[in-house]
Amino acid sequence: MTLLEIFPSLRSAMTPRLDPAVWPASTHVDDHDRITVAGVALADIADQYGTPSYVLDELDLRHRCRTYREVFPEAEIAYAGKALLTRAVATWVTEEGLSLDVCSAGELAIALSAGVNPRRIIMHGNAKTPAELSAARDAGVGRIVIDSHAEITLLAATLTRRQNVLVRVTPGIDAHTHRAVATGVTDQKFGFPLEHGQADEAVRRVLGQPRLNLIGLHCHLGSQITEVEHFRTAVDRMIAQMAQIRIDHGTILTELNLGGGHGISYVCGDPQLDLSSLAATLDDALDDACARHRFPRPRITLEPGRAVAGRAGVTVYRVVSVKHVTGGRTFVCVDGGMSDNPRVALYGAHYSVALANRHSIAAPAVVTVAGRHCEAGDELAVDVQLPSDLHPGDVLAVPGTGAYHHSLASTYNAVGRPPIVAVRDGRSRELIRRETVEDLLRREVSG
Ligand SMILES: Cc1ncc(COP(=O)(O)O)c(C=O)c1O
């Protein structure tokens, strides 16, 4: 007889800490001490669909869309598809009243094949190809965000009728995010800097093209931003620019797209962006800036990706081996890694990990969860606490993997990409199947 059988009340005290700020809202522990999401045991998903698998809580994702609409009732919310886009996700977000931001012909095709109204699609990309601009034109997307001088000329030549466009500007704001995702600073590849009149020049050129209907400006400050004050500065600078455009050209722009970048927690205690406080700050900043410049309040668009999809996702892995290095670390090696989650290697991201298929009363040990790939840096979580009796066959779950995991996945080492399994009301269904070795071989055209 186990201790838990003698003292059942110990169970709740001893279950792993599943912080609701990090795990999907529907995460629980069932009577067999297994972690469940939306009423489905992650261990059952591992058995049925194999590992690694991305698990996606549909209602969690839908709920986050609804929260955005409630907190920002007057703004347009355009889900950033680069975070995670499948036909089902495109359907869920648009059913919840969001628009959709895409940044490639591929993402556009997924959105269209899900039946998304093209008028609600915003097309991004710092290097859109002629084919992509033609695809956006043919689809009749609502807005194209212009990112370079070459694009102005190319788009104007491509269009057969007037197209609503925004100009992407970099407002020179350092939101203190990782260098690889700091897109609001001047010295990077996106948009036209406000500095040195570069954005002015782009606006002048766009206004000189009769087929381009400039309706607003766009900026995106970076990723994982947790302090709302950066957005106040952005509003100040962007409204000042819009007011200057009115003075210089007599054109009143009616749309201000402030991008995404809303930070979420990956581990317990991580800061995250407070949406209510962002709403209050934006309101305040718009009141101030518009009054100062006597400029009519533009319609605001926000483009969250991670904050909509990130916490709806959990990746399940199976432990393949546990290696104790004498004088070194203990490595818990799993059957996935940097091919399904490159964020650790790319950004030094941190994750929570939990044992998902059973409860252990073994003492915790500090371990490194390592991936299966041929890179020493292929580690999913360093110095995390897991039960010391972990063994091959155990199932580990990593929360916070709904955004920028499937979309960033690779086939490194010819390992096929994992499936996406949606869970809702105690049921699971595959949205994307696992990529097989046959899929990889099918791409080879000559031997
Ligand atoms: C233009 C634009 N909008 C929105 C986003 C979404 O950012 P996040 O997922 O951090 O909210 C990105 C991310 O790179 C972006 O480049």
UniProtKB/TrEMBL annotation:
Keyword terms, alphabetized: Amino-acid biosynthesis, Decarboxylase, Lyase, Lysine biosynthesis, Pyridoxal phosphate
Protein name, UniProt field: Diaminopimelate decarboxylase
Domain Orn/DAP/Arg decarboxylase 2 N-terminal: 60-309
Gene3D superfamilies assigned: Alanine racemase, Lyase, Ornithine Decarboxylase, Chain A, domain 1
Signal peptide (from-to): none
Reaction catalysed by this enzyme: meso-2,6-diaminopimelate + H(+) = L-lysine + CO2
Single GO biological process annotation from the record: lysine biosynthetic process via diaminopimelate
Positions of pyridoxal 5'-phosphate binding: 261, 303-306, 404
Cofactor(s) needed by this chain: pyridoxal 5'-phosphate
Top EC class of this enzyme: lyase
EC number(s) per entry: 4.1.1.20
Entry's family note: Belongs to the Orn/Lys/Arg decarboxylase class-II family. LysA subfamily.
Quaternary assembly: Homodimer.
Coiled coil: none
Binding site for substrate: 306, 343, 347, 375, 404
Species of provenance: Rhodococcus tukisamuensis
GO MF, one example: diaminopimelate decarboxylase activity
Positions where N6-(pyridoxal phosphate)lysine occurs in the chain: 82
Active-site positions on this chain: 374 (proton donor)
Pathway: Amino-acid biosynthesis; L-lysine biosynthesis via DAP pathway; L-lysine from DL-2,6-diaminopimelate: step 1/1
NCBIfam families linked to this entry: lysA
Chain's role: Specifically catalyzes the decarboxylation of meso-diaminopimelate (meso-DAP) to L-lysine.
